[in-house]
Amino acid sequence: MGRLQKILIPLLGLVLAFWFYSARENFKPEMLQGKRVIVTGASTGIGEQIAYHLARMGSHILITARTEAKLQKVVRRCLELGAASARYVSGTMEDMAFAQHVVSEAQASLGGLDMLILNHVGASYFGFFDGDVEHVRKLLEINFLSYVAMTTAALPMLKESEGSIVVVSSMAGKVGFPFTVPYSATKFALDGFFSSLRQEFSIQNINVSITLCILGFIDTDRAVRAAAEVLREVPAPRDECALEILKGAALRRRELYYRYSSTRLPLLLRDCAAELLDYLVRSRYRLPAAPGTPRPPL
Ligand SMILES: NC(=O)c1ccc[n+]([C@@H]2O[C@H](COP(=O)([O-])OP(=O)(O)OC[C@H]3O[C@@H](n4cnc5c(N)ncnc54)[C@H](OP(=O)(O)O)[C@@H]3O)[C@@H](O)[C@H]2O)c1
Ligand SMILES: *[C@@H]1O[C@H](CO)[C@@H](O)[C@H](O)[C@H]1NC(C)=O
């Protein structure tokens, strides 16, 4: 025991020192200069802000969502802000062929890809699970399956560039959340797929990073409209959120928590006091929402 401790304690110290040192690497905006990046769900919200940050850093940007008029505006703004180039493709992620088409557009117009930022979410309701199985299937296609399709299509280019995949998820993808059952299910699915894929990349020496982003309540229009009245929480600013996502991505982190205090810290309870965490999650809500109200998810 004594000898084991003599070895273990210095070893632990070394591991911690290494971890600390490697975690200290600093983000510099130049890291994203000239990089070719796809951002999905970039017509509004967090995705739009990610596009603007990338533009300021001088990236080549390809954005996508359904609403063409909004995408045109975002592209114009990106060019004003200094993007190396900016373009859009409009269409719906309900359609896997469209998801793959976005990736081939990057191949055709940018000649490759350095970063794939998967951020879009389909509309869902905010309320008790209403038993609509068809809605769950559709949401899985938009929020999950299209992420898989785009990743698969982009992988050859990402291997070539030693690039990065960024998956925007939520606290609701790490712990059960009431009133967003279908949404939460799609976010858990992302964790399963991408965490497993990361393991295989590691085994196969595939140098493509995967950053899973665990977000708390963010002040995007749709989230605020859906939840501001029922959540006892002040939403965090979307532009800061977008920047933190890009920092985590550029530093090739496995997971990114924003804000740290309302995501990472409560999640520490998950393995040792799961019921306490469940209680804390429930206590964030002011009152049970009316069932079936069609509202977008968190
Ligand atoms: N805001 C929060 O509090 C919060 C919290 C945790 C996690 N998140 C995550 O952060 C990400 C961004 O959220 P947000 O609040 O910025 O959302 P948002 O403002 O509602 O933006 C969603 C984006 O997805 C696009 N979209 C919706 N349905 C689509 C479809 N069928 N096909 C293609 N694109 C579609 C929308 O554009 P169109 O309508 O033009 O298609 C829009 O650009 C999501 O993954 C979300 O789960 C957000
Ligand atoms: C993986 O790719 C990144 C970005 O190109 C590079 O900085 C890093 O050294 C690579 N790691 C390995 C093990 O090749």
Automatic annotation (TrEMBL):
Record lineage: Eukaryota, Metazoa, Chordata, Craniata, Vertebrata
Keywords: Endoplasmic reticulum, Membrane, Oxidoreductase, Signal, Transmembrane, Transmembrane helix
SUPFAM superfamilies: NAD(P)-binding Rossmann-fold domains
Protein name: 11-beta-hydroxysteroid dehydrogenase 1
InterPro entries in alphabetical order: 11-beta-HSD, NAD(P)-bd_dom_sf, Sc_DH/Rdtase_CS, SDR_fam
Enzyme Commission code(s) on record: 1.1.1.146, 1.1.1.201
A single GO BP: steroid catabolic process
Record family assignment: Belongs to the short-chain dehydrogenases/reductases (SDR) family.
Keyword Glycoprotein belongs to the record: no
Gene3D superfamilies: NAD(P)-binding Rossmann-like Domain (3.40.50.720)
Bilayer-crossing regions: none
Principal localisation: endoplasmic reticulum
Pfam families: adh_short
Assembly, per entry: Homodimer.
GO cellular component annotations of the record: endoplasmic reticulum membrane
Organism whose genome encodes this protein: Lepidothrix coronata (blue-crowned manakin)
Signal peptide bounds: 1-17
Catalytic activity, reaction form: glycochenodeoxycholate + NADP(+) = 7-oxoglycolithocholate + NADPH + H(+); glycoursodeoxycholate + NADP(+) = 7-oxoglycolithocholate + NADPH + H(+); 7-oxopregnenolone + NADPH + H(+) = 7beta-hydroxypregnenolone + NADP(+); taurochenodeoxycholate + NADP(+) = 7-oxotaurolithocholate + NADPH + H(+)
One annotated GO molecular function: 11-beta-hydroxysteroid dehydrogenase (NADP+) activity
The gene coding this protein: LOC108500392
Membrane topology, from the record: Single-pass type II membrane protein
Top EC group: oxidoreductase
Record localization: Endoplasmic reticulum membrane
